[in-house]
Amino acid sequence: MSSDPGEIIVRLDVMLALRKMKSRELAQRVGITEANISLLKSGNVRAVRFSTLAAICAALDCQPGDLLEFQASSND
Fold first, then answer.
1. Fold of the 11-68 domain
2. Closest among 40, 49, 51 to 12, alpha carbons compared
3. Alpha-carbon gap, residue 9 to 21, rounded angstroms
4. What is the pTM of this model?
5. Where are the domains of the chain?
6. What is the pLDDT of residue 2?
7. The pLDDT of residue 1
8. Residues 4-60: pLDDT tens digits?
9. d(CA 6, CA 12)
10. How confident is the model at residue 73 (pLDDT cuts 50, 70, 90)?
11. What gap in Å lies between CA 35 and CA 25, rounded to an integer?
12. Contact in structure between 43 and 10 (CB atoms under 8 Å)
């Protein structure tokens, strides 16, 4: 078994585009900084609070699975 289980792909940019919403508007609705939205979009975060994820889902009218995707490691 590989020690690399895979990775989580963040699809926040896709949902923003589908909802025709800017990062700035989402940040305001969720109550976090635009810089944090940018970090989330790029996947450069180690954790996301469930409360933040819930607020993002509410603002974008989506499910957590619409924002996050698991991609298995290719060397299995």
1. 434 Repressor (Amino-terminal Domain) (1.10.260)
2. 40
3. 20
4. 0.88
5. 11-68
6. 58
7. 52
8. 888 999 999 999 999 999 999 999 999 999 999 999 999 889 999 999 999 999 999
9. 19
10. confident
11. 12
12. yes
Residue 3 in this model has a pLDDT that exceeds 80: no
SS (H, E, C) the chain: CCCCCEEEEECHHHHHHHCCCCHHHHHHHHCCCHHHHHHHHHCCCCCCCHHHHHHHHHHHCCCHHHHEEEEECCCC
Identify whether the C-beta of residue 37 lies closer than 8 Å to the C-beta of residue 59. no
In whole angstroms, give the CA distance from residue 10 to residue 44: 9
Cα 21 to Cα 46: distance, rounded to the nearest angstrom: 25
| Cβ neighbours of residue 64 closer than 8 Å, sequence gap 6 or more | 53, 57
Query: Where do we find the tokens 């989402």?
Result: 26
